[in-house]
Amino acid sequence: MKNIRQSFFKSTSFKQRGFTMVEILVALVISLFLVAGVIQLFIGSKQTYRGYDALSRIQENGRFALEAMARDIRMARYFPRVVNQPVPNSTVTELTVMNQNGVPWPDPFLLGAAPIIGVDNGNTDSIAIQWLANDGVTFNSRRYSIGNRTGLPVTCPEAATSLRVNQNDGNGAQELIEGVRSMEILYGEDTAPAGTPPTPSVARLIGPAGGVTNWNNVVSVQINLLVVGLEGNLVTTPQSVNFSNGAGGQTNVILNNRCLGQVFSTTIALRN
């Protein structure tokens, strides 16, 4: 019986076993590949986010800059209802009144009133109206006129709004839009003779300020902006952008810090 028990316990007992060195190395290699894949995915997602964020900021700054400048440039020398005609008479006609304190007005009074009663009779058009009629009312009428008399002269100044700009060298320039690498302003000059209606065949000159012969004939302004992002290392190679050179051609601009850039352009018609 004793031998049977000993053989039973020997057959049912197992020794504790662990991982071998080969299994541990294989597990480490697999884990390394998984971690590398997760890191690569994170870096790619972050780089994509930086690129989209920089591009959205560039577009926002460029559109705001064009809108802000176009609003002011469009109204340059614009005065509504001014036809540039001389004033026929500079003499102001004097107006005199008898009482410099003004004309007194009597207190308002009520002639007669009665409420108007409307009856809703099941979506019909039956409406009863009561009013007051055939009552005698006495009116006292007073007539005032401006006679030929002299009194206190009244001076009425002309009210006008004026804008004055004073140059102050103490304050420096304040940046409104960030990332503007280059800005170019071209002017469109109407070369047609005076009184000629504009047609597509009439030549228009668009060039810098030095090429304008008569500023009164400037009818449009073209603005070109090169806006770049503030963050670098967004692309693998430096970006190449074509920007206007002011002479009707294009200039190749290289963004050396591997940032993103975009050209914005608009043409504004003047209202003068």
Summarize the structure in short:
This protein is an alpha+beta fold. 24% of the residues lie in helices and 17% in strands.
Content of β-strand: 15-25%
Order of helices and strands: HHEEEEEE
Mean pLDDT: 70
Are there runs of 5+ residues with pLDDT below 50, and where?
none
Distance N terminus to C terminus?
123 Å
Return Rg in Å: 43 Å
Strand tally is: 6
Structural class: alpha+beta
Write the layout of secondary structure elements.
Elements: H1 2-12, H2 21-74, E1 180-190, E2 204-207, E3 218-228, E4 239-244, E5 250-255, E6 261-269
Antiparallel strand pairs: 1-2, 1-3, 3-6, 4-5
Explained architecture:
- The model has no long low-confidence stretch (mean pLDDT 70).
- The longest helix is centred in the first third of the chain and has 54 residues, at 21-74.
- The protein is an alpha+beta fold and 272 residues long.
- It has a domain at 46-80 and 176-269.
- The chain has a four-stranded antiparallel β-sheet, with helices on one face. A two-stranded antiparallel ribbon has the order 4-5.
- Helix content is 24%, strand content 17%.
- The protein starts with a helix and ends with a strand.
- It has two helices and six strands.
